[in-house]
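Researcher: Here's a chain I'd like modeled. Treat it as a single chain, no partners, no ligands.
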Amino acid sequence: MSAPVFLAEAGLLRPGTVVLDGPEGRHAVSVRRLRPGEEVVLTDGAGTGAYGSVTAAEGKDRLEVAVREVRTEPAPRPRITVVQALPKGDRGELAVETMTETGVDAVVPWAASRAVTRWKGERAAKSLAKWRSTAREAGKQARRLRFPEVAELAATREVAALLESADFAAVLHEEGSTPLASAALPETGEIVLVVGPEGGVAPEELELFARAGAAPLRLGPSVLRTSTAGTAATAVLLARSGRWG
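Model: Modeled as a single isolated chain. Structure tokens:
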């Protein structure tokens, strides 16, 4: 099994003895019950990882690690961003979790016109914090050094602007004439995909996105839930772009 990953401040990612404490130290000592000699990876979540072994586990939340090596991963190309319409209940966190584990680079929450869920006021702040926490924890679980960015909630016109600036943009839609699996993809740059809500993408949104350069593409013969479509699409793109090669 690969070494577990823990989040650490960038200043701690250096060769030598590093102390991990606080919530991450508590998770390592009291939950994972790591002991001297076990391998661990510390990361800042931005692409840098410190590789070493545990030298001491003290109390409930203090882990000492002897770091042997520090590596920094280059930013992946092409970069994959999924614009995720707000789903009902906890399906938003499910979408973020599985997309993170699959390998998405950024997630943009979208207030689609047909979305049942609405983020407003205090609820918006709490929901966004949940999505970001989910991405962080899923990134550690997936042994990633670079965690996906979860952006602020976007309105439809903000999504259109994002699509217009992308090197490849598409809206996942069951009526798309072209499958995502055969669309021409760029080797570098930014890929942006839009996943609609349970009620589907409204015609006026489709029209606006089309003017921004995002054609409707289908995933396959079956219709996926909004909470799983982004994960399936990310897997297709990672395989076709060579990032899984």
